Amino acid sequence: MKKLFSTLFLLAVILNFSVSYAQTKVDQTEITSSVQELTDFHDIIYPMWHDAYPSKDYEKLKSYVPMIKSSVESINKAKLPGILRDKQTAWTSQLAELNKAAENYYKAAAGNDNNALLAAAEGLHSGYEKMVRVIRPAIKEIDDFHQTLYIIYHKLLPDKKFSEIEGMTDILITKSQAIVNYPHDKLKRLGDNVVKFDASAKKLYSSTVSLKEVLKGNDPEKKKVAVESMHSAYEELDALFK
């Protein structure tokens, strides 16, 4: 019976979230932490790096130039989705480096220095990976939380749609609890900051629970402050991975 109740509760939470989500009219691409043009570039980078580069197939490496030019041009024109707006500065900076790496590749491919071509391929691969790291979510659970937070902070809060925000608090609490429960053995890259992760995750969870309580009241200013507090707690947690 307890298991059945938990299942029904979760379904109710998801349904409630779906209704609120529909009301805000947010395109799914706006809350997806990816850039299709960069994803498409992987279709070129993968065979270049894993096939042509290790086998030292210089002619094959040179044959990728037109495809690389087309893909890099598309990446230059790409726009970050709304959820990645805070990554714009890092994206622009790393994009400049990717263009330099691509130019080095074109130059090396036009010449006869095979070592230079291999070095250029290595540089291009490195540039691609750094671009991916700019937009890659810290962990899936944080990205899941951010998708809901984005809707609240950038779509609902400006128009003071607190009733819609209140309808999303249960899913926020569930998602923040998932962050609190994230296994430590998957956080090795944080090193000594794992302790800070625990503290920040619990702070984020507490802020979502507090938000739910505040939204039951009638003070718009307190509600705004509670949302801002939750947003700040998220930023504090996300900053640990930068």
Concise synopsis of the structure shown:
By secondary structure, the protein is mainly α.
Can you walk through the features of this model?
This protein is mainly α and 242 residues long. The chain folds into 2 domains: 2-32 and 138-239, Four Helix Bundle (Hemerythrin (Met), subunit A) (Up-down Bundle), CATH 1.20.120; 36-135, Four Helix Bundle (Hemerythrin (Met), subunit A) (Up-down Bundle). The chain has 11 helices and no strands. The radius of gyration is 22 Å and the shape is elongated. Mean pLDDT is 90; it is low at 1-22.
Number of H/I helices: 11
Report the helical percentage: over 70%
Strand content: under 5%
Total strands: the figure is: 0
Here the CATH topology of the largest domain equals Four Helix Bundle (Hemerythrin (Met), subunit A)
Distance between the termini: 44 Å
Instruction: Give the H and E element order.
Output: HHHHHHHHHHH
CATH class of the largest domain: Mainly Alpha
Structural class: mainly alpha
Number of domains: 2
Q: What average pLDDT do the residues reach?
A: 90
How large is the radius of gyration?
22 Å
Q: Give the overall shape.
A: elongated
What are the SSEs and their pairings?
Blueprint: H1 2-24, H2 36-52, H3 58-63, H4 65-77, H5 88-110, H6 114-135, H7 140-156, H8 162-166, H9 169-180, H10 194-214, H11 220-239
Quick tags:
242 residues; mainly alpha; Four Helix Bundle (Hemerythrin (Met), subunit A); disordered N terminus
